[in-house]
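Postdoc handover notes: sequence design on the structure in folder B. Input C-alpha cells:
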C-alpha cells in the first residue's frame, strides 16, 4: 500500500486530494499547524476525516518537518501548505513568503536529508506569470509576479527545480490556474459571489460589493485539478506542468452566470466598490494546458459555467 503525506490537508485541494488517494487505495497522512485544534471541516464534509492520519507540523520549522517525514514514511509528499490568498498576501507579505517559500524549502531539504525515495509535488500558481498581455502562458513563459503571494510561489517553484537538478529528486510543480469548489473559504471572491447570490435569491436585501470585475481568469473544478497532481507523480520522469481549462472569462461573466443560475439579473444587485481593488492585479489570466493533455492524459471536463452551477447547487 502506497502512503501519501499531504501538507495542508485541511484546505480545499488537500481534502479533495485525500479523497482521491484513499479511493486509489493509498494510506493517507495529512498535516496542519495544530492537528489538535484544527476542525478539518473539509475532511468531515467529504466524510473521510476518520480515514486519515493527522499530524501537527510547522512547515517553517525544519525539525518539525523532519519529524513528521520520519514518522509517516511516505512514498509521496504533496505540498499544499502555506498562505493561499493573493489579497491577504498584500497585508501579510512576510508570513506569506515564509509559509510558502521557506516551507517548501524545508520539505525539499528534509527529503534530501533523509535520502528516502520520496516523490514530491509542489503547488505552484498561475499568479507567477503576472500579466502576459492576453497571451496564453505555457510552462516556459517567464515569471513576472505581481503580488507577494506570486513572489513566494515563484521562489518555491525555482527551489523545486533546483533540488530536482542538483540532487536528482523526483520533484514536480503544478502551475495551477484558478480552481474552485464548494470547499473554498469565504475570503475567496468566487465563494463570496456564490454565497451572496444564494442569499439574495432567498430574499436578502444586501447588495454584492465587488472590486474590479473586468479581470479575466481561467476557472476550473478543484476535484479535477487534484487528479492532475496525482498524475504528475506517476510519471517516469519528474517535470512541471501547467494545469488549466484553456478558457478564460471575466469576473463579470462569473457574476452574471451565478445570478442566471438562480434566475436573477445581476445588474440589480452588484455594487462596484473601489476599496476592494488590489494594489496590483493581473488583467487577464490565460493558460495553455497542452503539455498536461499530451503527457499526463489530463484534460478539464468542467469550464466556468459548469463550476458556477455546481457551486450554486451545493450552496442551496
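Designed sequence:
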Amino acid at each position: 500500500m502506497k502512503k501519501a503525506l499531504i501538507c495542508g490537508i485541511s484546505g480545499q485541494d488537500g481534502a479533495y486530494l485525500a479523497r482521491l488517494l484513499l479511493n486509489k487505495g493509498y494510506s493517507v497522512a495529512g498535516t496542519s499547524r495544530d492537528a489538535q485544534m484544527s476542525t478539518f471541516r473539509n475532511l468531515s464534509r467529504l466524510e473521510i476525516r476518520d480515514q486519515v492520519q493527522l499530524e501537527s507540523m510547522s512547515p517553517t520549522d525544519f525539525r518539525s518537518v523532519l519529524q513528521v517525514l520520519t514518522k509517516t514514511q511516505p512514498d509521496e509528499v504533496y505540498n499544499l501548505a502555506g498562505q493561499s490568498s493573493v489579497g491577504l498576501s498584500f497585508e501579510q507579505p512576510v508570513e506569506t513568503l515564509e509559509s510558502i517559500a521557506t516551507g517548501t524549502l524545508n520539505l525539499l531539504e528534509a527529503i534530501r536529508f533523509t535520502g528516502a525515495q520520496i516523490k514530491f509535488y509542489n503547488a505552484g500558481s498561475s499568479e507567477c506569470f503576472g500579466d502576459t498581455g492576453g497571451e496564453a502562458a505555457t510552462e516556459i513563459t517567464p515569471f513576472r509576479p505581481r503580488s507577494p503571494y506570486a513572489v513566494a510561489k515563484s521562489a518555491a517553484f525555482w527551489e523545486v527545480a533546483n533540488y530536482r537538478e542538483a540532487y536528482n529528486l523526483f520533484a514536480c510543480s503544478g502551475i495551477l490556474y484558478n480552481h474552485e469548489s464548494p470547499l473554498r473559504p469565504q475570503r475567496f471572491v468566487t465563494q463570496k459571489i456564490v454565497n451572496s447570490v444564494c442569499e439574495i435569491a432567498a430574499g436578502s436585501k444586501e447588495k454584492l460589493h465587488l472590486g474590479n470585475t473586468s479581470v479575466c481568469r481561467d476557472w476550473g473544478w478543484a476535484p479535477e485539478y487534484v487528479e492532475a497532481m496525482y498524475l504528475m507523480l506517476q510519471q517516469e520522469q519528474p517535470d512541471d506542468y501547467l494545469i488549466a481549462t484553456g478558457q478564460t472569462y471575466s469576473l463579470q461573466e462569473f457574476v452574471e452566470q451565478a445570478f442566471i443560475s438562480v434566475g436573477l439579473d445581476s445588474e440589480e444587485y452588484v455594487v462596484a466598490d473601489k476599496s476592494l481593488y488590489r494594489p496590483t492585479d493581473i488583467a487577464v489570466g490565460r493558460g495553455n494546458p497542452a503539455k498536461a493533455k499530451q503527457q499526463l492524459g489530463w484534460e478539464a471536463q468542467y469550464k466556468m459555467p459548469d463550476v458556477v452551477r455546481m457551486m450554486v447547487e451545493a450552496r442551496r
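Context for whoever picks this up: The chain has a mean pLDDT of 94. Don't rerun without checking with the PI first.
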